[in-house]
Amino acid sequence: MDWIICIPSHMRSQSIKTNTLKTLDDCNIPHERIKVFVAKDEVPKYRASLPSDIEVIESLIGCIENRAKIREYYPEGKHILYMDDDIKGIFSVCDMTDEHSTCHIFKKENLGKSFYKKQIPIPDLTKFITQGFEITIKENAHLWGIYPIGNGFFASHKYVTDLRYICGGFYGEINVKEFALRGDQYSEDFERTCEWFKRDGKIIRFESVLLKTGYYKGEGDSGSSGGLVATRNKDNTRLAQEKLQAMYPEYLQIVPPSKRNIYYTLKCKRVLRGRIRMTKTPSATSLVD
Asked: What does the pLDDT read at residue 14?
């Protein structure tokens, strides 16, 4: 399948090499599939820093603006996997083989046994991405993503099609040029989730794959914080969440700060559309059969 990986980046020309690009190298992803999108004045720095066979493309600053530029850059129907620039690892509870010979060890009932593991580095990222787009096409959807919590204890062998949060760090989209977000940088992943669900009546989330990443963290160039980290604070996240919750009151509710998270955030309400329901396979073959 002809898919590409697009990485919006800002002020991380060095750390992107030790995070997302190293992760992709570890997963044997060819560099010709990888495209890095940065603001105009950062293009020379990234081109000087990154391997010459990774294309650096001029874009815009801002999560919404950068991704809109990517959407504009590629043709309608292009299969695009979006990744953040600070991904430290991609993990799975699926061994990605036809036999699934080791997948059983990740079940919660094995907790405490000598062979139990929470997850493993994803065995075949190329296969998973291809299957992600294949299943999305089969389900007549446009957006797919992965489990948003980096703890394999909660991951499971299934994909779901009801309203669930699709994290912005790693998601696949079948390109639609006229698709546009109207909200705020600090909640664009929730808006994308809701807008695609509103349009398609479903989104796809694979519960077996998860990320290791530095949420709300990240070192940028010259000791600064890259991405949105430099400007994120409690007040602007609160305003962003209030704006988006007002746009999608039937889909979202606001979650105030807590001891574990100092920022306001959002939670997707469990919404089913028509006959859309949780899709679960009869065995541990949900990703390959």
From this structure: 97
User: 109 versus 128: which is more confidently predicted?
Assistant: 128
Q: Tell me how far apart the alpha carbons of residues 93 and 117 are, in angstroms, rounded to a whole number.
A: 9
pLDDT confidence of residue 119: 93
Rounded mean pLDDT of 147-171?
93
Smallest CA-to-CA distance from 65 within 145, 235, 180 is with 180
**What would the pLDDT profile of 196-212 be if each residue is shown by its tens digit?**
999 999 999 999 999 99
Q: Are strands 209-213 and 3-8 parallel, antiparallel or unpaired?
A: unpaired
Q: Count of CB atoms within 10 A of residue 102's CB?
A: 15
Cα-flanking dihedrals φ and ψ of residue 236, to 5°? -75, -25
How is the chain classified by DSSP, letter by letter?
A: --EEEEEE-SS-TTHHHHTHHHHHHHTT--GGGEEEEEEGGGHHHHHHHS-TTSEEEEE-SSHHHHHHHHHHHSPTT-EEEEE-TTEEEEEES---SSS-SSGGGGSGGGTTSTT--S-EE-S-HHHHHHHHHHHHHHTT-SEEEE-SSS-TTS--S-EE-SS----TTEEEEE--TT----S-GGGHHHHHHHHHHHHHS--EEETTEEEEE-TT--B-GGG-B-TTTTT--HHHHHHHHHHHHHH-TTTEEEE---SS--S-EEEE-----TT---B--SSS-TTT-
Query: In one letter, which amino acid is 284?
Result: A
| Domains present along the chain, CATH in parentheses | 3-268 (3.90.550)
This prediction's pTM: 0.87
181/77 Cα distance (integer angstroms)? 18
**What pLDDT score does 259 carry?**
78
Alpha-carbon gap, residue 281 to 66, rounded angstroms: 37
